[in-house]
Amino acid sequence: MAPKYPKILGYELIQQIGGGSFSSVFRAVNIENHQVAACKVIFIKEQTTEKERKVVEKEMKLHKLLKHKHVLEFLHAAVVERKYKDSYVPGIYMLLELAAGGDLFDKIAPNVGIGEDVAHYYFGQLLAGMDFIHREGVCHRDLKPENILLDVAGTLKISDFGLAAVYKLKESGKTRQLNELCGSLPYMAPEVHYETPYEAEPIDVWGIGIILFTLLAGNTPWDQSTAQSSEFCQYITGEIFNELPWNRLKAEVLSLICGLLTIEPEKRMTLAEAFAHPWCIRPSQIAKQGVVALADHLTESLRANGDLNYAMPDIAISAETRKDKDGDEIMLSATHQSQFTQSLLLFSQTQSGRRYTPNLTRFYTSLGPGIMMQLVKESLTTLGVKHKDGPTGEDERGEILRLRVGGYDKRNIAFKGWVELENFRYAETDGSFCLMTRDIGNPISWRQLWKALILSPAVDPHVLRK
């Protein structure tokens, strides 16, 4: 009998929603309490070292202490050692709050960004979360789009404390410098590259500056903050302010971004100064409009560029559906379905019924999965994306064809994920439902790949549109 996943605190691991070769993320369901969580499983393999385990233990220890409305909640942890491998999958199991709203940056059109009012709303929440984390004496060190999630009501959640470090003792306020070279190149502060110790707080301030720019512009400002990047050099000289997208930013928010992205860490804006900046202290126009309006504002750029026409074509709205399994249906109504997630179209119409799908990178086609997968492979090869067949699965949805994909985006950041195809029948015709889920990499780059695949000559003629 193949080893299975154990129940964690009464939660059963139901559906894989992400992960790579070292870890997987599952949707976990507590049927008794009608509650849903996320469970991250970091596999313990024969070659897993004590040092690697200590890194994960440190992450859990830190994350457990951080209880705040804008920090993804850490619920519980359990370990299955290798000696039990015949019964259960060995691993470190981390039970976390489920970010049912998915990635914030999955909702943003590449090179367009979101409106200033929505950026203002979410930046205020990011500031509040980071202020709390720093007051607890912790530096995140890995602030980037893929670590900014949304809950079922559209509230921002900061996640992934794998690179976090304690830099301050809460009782005495005594601080220490940090010295590891860590983070992702487009989001790293310049001083992290100098190979000398650096102050903790300014590097997170730099990170939130990059995130604010990316929210407004739909792309990161440069591939790295070193002399090797021509865009970064142009930022230092000031030439870049005449270029798009910098020249379309309004003066007030531009002054905030430049304050957060000040090269010298000692002159860089602090979080307290950011809170007091005129752009931040103005009242939010979005906060009082409710979650449906929030979802509309958030996906405005995706509607304008036509992306949502692929994610939810008319055929998917009107298709005949069968009922979900009982357990799943309870969970759907209990914790995933909110006005916010429904307005964001985070439910896909599939052959087996309406299903929670936290990714908007999906589409429907007029050809069945077998033929469609061949065309998808052909297109990915043309786009220079590596791919290999994944395990073909079967569940209540029927047979699912899987493809593992990976590569590097324009900023030279690695991405990995899955393309899944399943049968979708409409108007007496066999078509496919195609879902693209990202494991690692920038959500905006993943959306660019999704769009490039849809518009590729082999795939485009068969894609259903609204």
Automatic annotation (TrEMBL):
Its EC number is 2.7.11.1. ATP binds at residue 40. One of its GO terms (molecular function) is ATP binding. Residues 11-280 form the Protein kinase domain. One of its GO terms (cellular component) is site of double-strand break. It comes from the Eukaryota. Transmembrane segments: none annotated. Keywords: ATP-binding, Kinase, Nucleotide-binding, Serine/threonine-protein kinase, Transferase. It is an enzyme of class 2 (transferase). It catalyses: L-threonyl-[protein] + ATP = O-phospho-L-threonyl-[protein] + ADP + H(+); L-seryl-[protein] + ATP = O-phospho-L-seryl-[protein] + ADP + H(+). Gene3D superfamilies: Transferase(Phosphotransferase) domain 1. GO terms for biological process: mitotic G2 DNA damage checkpoint signaling. Pfam families: Pkinase (PF00069). Belongs to the protein kinase superfamily. This is non-specific serine/threonine protein kinase.
